[in-house]
Structure formats: C-alpha cells, structure tokens
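During the reporting period, our protein records have gained a structure token line. One record among many is quoted in full directly below:
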Amino acid sequence: MLGSMQNWPLLCTKIIDHAALLHPKRTVMTRSVEGPFHTTTYAEMRTRSLRVAKRLEKHGIRLGDRVATLAWNTWRHMEVWYGLLGLGAIYHTVNPRLFHDQIVWIVNDAEDRLLFVDLTFLPVIEKYIADMPTLEQVIVLTDAEHMPATTLPNAVPYEEWLKEADDDFVWRTFDENTAAGLCYTSGTTGHPKGVVYSHRSNVLHAFQASQVDMFGCGSRDVIMPVVPMFHANCWSLAFTAPMVGAAMVMPGAKLDGASIHEILEVGKVTLTAAVPTVWQMLLQHMEAKKLGLSHLERVVIGGAACPRAMTEKFEKVYDVRVAHAWGMTETSPLGTICGLKPETAGLDIEARLDLQVKQGVPPFGVEMKITDDQNRERPRDGKAFGRLRVRGPAIAGGYFKGAGQEAFGEDGYFDTGDVATIDENGYMQITDRAKDVIKSGGEWISTIDLENLAIAHPDVLEAAVIGVFHPKWDERPLLIIVPKPGATPTKEKILAYYEDKIAKWWMPDDVVFIEEIPHTATGKIQKMSLREQFRDYKLPGV
C-alpha cells in the first residue's frame, strides 16, 4: 500500500518560486564586479531567471546539457543558476583558482556547451579558449557599457544576450533525481573528480542546512555567502537563503579584510560563512583600524580547521557567535556544524571554546561512523581515532563518469579520507587527513591540533605541520610558521608556548619560518607542496 499524498517533485525551481511568492521584496544586494552596489529582489530574480531559461532554450540547451560558470557571488550568477535549473540543464561551477591544465581538463571532461564568465576572468578564458573545443559561446556577465574588447569569438555581454528573450516561460518538469549541478574536487592527486548534485539532493540539503542546530537561519536574517558559488555548492546558501526568505548580500570579487568589513556593515549582515583565511584577513583589518561589527550575529567557519584563537576573538572581542563546520564537495557540502546540545549547553565560556574546536554534529540525513583500516567501527568515546565514513541522501554515491569508485563502500558509506573521533554526545572532530597524520613510533600525532595551537601564539600569522623522516621514529613533526608582519618569533619561544599544552612526544622537533604557505584552490593549506619543499629537510640531531 502506498501513501495518498501528492507527488510533488523536489525541484530547485520550487525554491525561487517560493521566495518570489512569499518574500517578493526581500533583497539581494551585490557588490558588482564593475564596482557599484546593485540591489534586486527575489521576485525580480525569478523573472530574470525565467528569461535566462528561455534564452538558453533558444540557443539549443536541453535537459542534461552542461553549462559552465566562472564567476563570483553576484545576483547575475544566481540568475544563471536558477535559469539552468528550470530548464533541466546542469550548472557546472568552475573554480578560477585551479591551474590552467585543471580548468581546461574539467571543462572538456564536463563537455560544457556554454560558459558564463565574470569580467575578472575574461583574460584567463582568452588564453584557454583554443583548448576547450566543446564551448560554443562565452557570455560575459556584464552589460554593453562595461563590455571590453575581447579576442573571444562570439562573446556577448550578458545583459544584451538576455534581451533576446522574455519571461514567458514555464519551468520544465522532470524527475527530482535529475542532475542539477556539477562541481569538481580540488584534485590534489590525479585529475579532479566531478560530483553531480541532483535537484532532490540540493533541496534536501537546503532543508538540512536551515535547521536550527545547523545554519539556523530565517526570514529575518541577512545572509552573506562569502564562500564562493564555485566552492562546494556555495555551502547551500544560494538555496537555503531563498528557501527561508532571508535577504542576501553577495560580496562579488573583493574579499580582502577592508572590503568584507565594509559590505558586512553596509548590508547589515547577520549571518555569513567562509573559510578561515577570509576571517583572518577581516580580524586583522578590524584590529589594525580599531573597528567593530554593528550587525553580525553569527559566522560559519569551514573548509579548514578553525583555530580556537579565531573563535575566541570573534566571541570575546566582537560578540559574534562562531559555528565551526565540516563538509566536502561530496557531501553537498554540509556534514556537521558545532552547536550546543542540551548536554553541553551549560558549559562556561572556556569549556565552550574548547568544544567549538570540534567540527560538530551532523543534521538528520547525514550518518557517520569511524572505522579502522579493515572497516571495523571504532568506539564513540572521543578518544578512538578512525577513518571518517558518511552516507545520506545529499552525499555522493559516485563520481561523474565513474571515476574514483574505490572511495564508495558496499555498505553505502563514502570514505572521506579524514581521520576523526566521535564522542558520546555525537560531536565529531577531525584530527587529520589520513594522508597528513604523522605516525611516529607507531603513534598518531594530529597536525591540526599542533597548527591550531601555533595560530594562537600572538606572533604567528599562519602555521602548518608536516611529518619529516626520522631514522628511529619513522617521522617527526616539523612546524612551519609565517610570522605576523613586524613580529620576530623564535624557535625557542614557539616551543615554550607548547609546553603543558600537548604530550611531550607531540612536541615538534624543529621550527622553520617562511614568508608564505602555499594554499589549494579552495584556500586550504597545500601540504603536498610543503612536503615537496621540505623533502630533504634534516631534523636537528639526525
């Protein structure tokens, strides 16, 4: 016997329809790539998205076709997303921070037919276009007035392209499991792998993200996704915000500390989300200029481990609550957020800050466990380490074109590649990437814990820890530090800072100071590059 409820497919266009009907005047403000602030509404955005869909159909874009975007977080980028979704085509978000070969490879692998590109990246595409034969046309996300001269054949400004269609269009209907978006992993080893989101998974993920213990957002919020739309589905905020009717602020291309502070204040943002490097720049700017935050209430920090010192500064100095999050491209991306459960609600500020170092608890719809290398589940006691494996309706069950299937187990769990603990209250804490954990004398040393402690030192701007060969212990930790401008930390002072904070055998064997730490395309520390750089490094006494 089946239920007698209406069969209402979970399509992403339902979200923008809802926003336009129930919250028509809610605003989406953008710092445009051209410079001035631009403001639209959900009602206007839906109308223009209908025009996008009709214009795409006029070009010949059909169900299942891939269309690339190489763009910042702007109202135009969102319009293109929803227009593609309403046609049944697939938005393919290209990360501009990838290397030339990677960008060319993923566009060709996706077989993208069109490319929507911001002015910032136009010179990049001019160099690459000859290597991307599937692209039929490039649409530049600007108007005729700001359209520069270009060597691209058939390139047109978006606003002129959009004038060739009206909004007399009805969203196409199809199965909710139809592909909606395509996002490639950062490809630290081999070629990047494509993750294909469905309409169903995007909608369910937006529901998950909106839960009180997750983003906890509503129609009275003003949400600014600093995390780019090309970074793991914009952490769902391009779907979650209109779903709950929250106003949006889009930062565009300027992500330095001064620009972020300005738009937080001008836009009266209450909730925002980004990787730690963005917030590091903001905090440094505010400290230098003696500025505060008038409206910001909550900040979600993910993409890399959030140092305790960063959380402490937000909460104690600026009265902004931090939510530490974890996720991956493969998890849509939200996997966990660290909020307070009844079991932890009574903690004092210092104990709460200790708790917030953890990545947190998953929402309904994300199941996780930690296992040993034989896939035997390990205890949830907060002490046992294991490989983190996850499953759920918004978690990838495979990669585009069948790549990398070894990561997907027969039991449906995806091997994240992370090493983690889970405590008795369900709080998960990443202790390392499986490939980054230091195994010294048969024991594991968490590079993340060592890095977070170093970041808390007043003279340290950024820190990384890698394992270096040791003839007796196999490998030992090397601490790599970028000092703050004007600071002159020493090895002795840094190591003294670690005393009484870690086990003695965790103590780094040496400290080196460098001007810059390399990062991946998504802002994470590039450990592989550091290991190559220090491949022949000799520890003292070895």
